[in-house]
Predict the 3D structure of the following.
Amino acid sequence: MIAISSGQKAGKIIGFFAAILIVLFINNTFARDDDSELNDNGRDNEIEFELTDNAGRWFDTGAELEGNRSIAVATPGVRVKFSGDSNTVHTRTSLVYPTGAAGMPFNTEPRKGGDDVTLTTPGLYIFVCSIHPYMFGAVIVDDPATAGLDLGSSLSMITGESFSSSSDLATRLLRTFFIATNPANWQNYASSTPWHISYPNIDVHVDGGVVNLASALNARYGNDLALEGLSKPAIPAVGEVWVATQFETTAGKSKPGTVSAIDGANWQVTRKVALPSIDMNNPHNLWADKDQNVIYATQWFDSKLAVYDRQTGALIRNVSVGESPAHVMTLTDNDRIHITNNGDSRTDSVMELAPLATEVLRRVDIGRGTPHGHWMSHDGKHMVTPNVINGDTTQYNFRTNVIEAIVPVSGEFSHPVAVGMLPNAGKYYVANMFDNTITAVDMSTHTVIKHINLLENYNPLSGAASGPVGAWPIQTPVSPDGKNMVTANALSGTITIIDTRPGLATTDTAVKMLPCDPGCHGVQYGAKQGGGYYAYVSSKFSNRLLVVDPDPNADGDPSDASIVGSVGLFASEATLRDDAITGNPGMGGQGILPIPLVYNGWVQNLPASWSDQLTEAQRHPIQ
């Protein structure tokens, strides 16, 4: 049931399952309770969220509504407390709140300790961790004198824009919340049953009046949808694809997360690596050494880098690197490893490790904290980082060990989360998640060339799209040949294809949109047998991997990009594993690592056993 603050004396019906302990639910309104026993017991108008590492229940009230333990209802003046049971730091950030609400926006620095905020204005509040921006908790502050639970007539995002509470943008945010925070609502391609999303059967007060929330969401987006069958791409891939199935649980661990290997020849899941001996915690992003023998996996809800053997899955070492390590990459000229400590507010928040992670060498000062998905240049000279909390990006020179520039890319709270770079290191792109933009930056002049507005073709009131749309862009790498960029968009559940070829009318323009699963998140390019590339796309709240061909007819124009296959990320009987899978099979797809690495600078360092499987054009992606 919905968690209700213990000081609440009045409410409305939500007519659902018989609930005991706190209130009786009947006839679609909360029954009024004029008894003062709750206050007589000395309890306050208070809600507590425990922040955890557990998939789906990151903000946990301990009480359920249709499997959801991340939403609570209270009356004005409620004190919302945030406690911690996580291995790493988090922020407590008001992502959505009633327009004009007192004390908003609310935001904390990354930390493990508790915080609290008092909410006085009726309406919907959605909290998020800025470090892990799919961790959600929600509070509905309800005025007992009004009909229906108050969502507020107008809602605001922390980035500044406001919108009607009955708009497509508002209901899409609510739909995303209820999918993300209830594992039973995730898309399960291992099952033959239709995809059902359980929404709370509650009456809510929005700008258009009182509506039933479940009925409104079902009417707008449908439910019990048939999931399309999985299909293997007709052309095999070179090598393997490793995916961080971050939410999959196993018997020998208290923390979630596996890494799943797919054979590019037959598209079968061949191995699951859980590393129970170290209780590997939420593996998020992956990279490999130059010989493609060792895989590095960051543990995003912890402070460690896991290092394991690619062929056997055996642990090599577990290295302490810092709070919430997010992404990992190597330098092309010396194979040194660089890891962004996403939860570290210090300016020297990128860790440099020796090859094979045998030792930590230094902390690299990028002038900002909380970097996330960085990228390295083909020549080993430059690193660019998106700095989540600062709304800017750093360009660092390894030759001189100096910061060449810190470039603002969007406004405060825009959440720059990942970057992609042209293979000649002339330009890079920053995905600003909550701003719904991608910023193109010239690496020579350190100036912004263009802001690509991914909502340019979207009507936030009706939801109508007149062209490619991407809301909440995350990973956005550029193809090894520099001709296109594939972006995963979490809120819209879409993939946008951007033409990155220079000197065209379509340069740095979204030219195609493809469907994706809920929580669309990770993208990386790998080699296609016989030439060309596949872009692999993963989603957090699904257990399949999409295979995109960004240029099916090999003419360089990405406007005909298409999905050519989809692969289940769940295990079969033949899948090798180091621990028994117990839940969320193949779920939580985030970081992706195609083996061999075929980006410019890395592909030239491949051993012959891998290089010989590539075409001449793939071995030399730019001329």
User: Anything to note?
Assistant: The radius of gyration is 24 Å. The first strand starts at residue 3 and ends at 4. The chain has five helices and 46 strands. The longest helix spans residues 168-180.
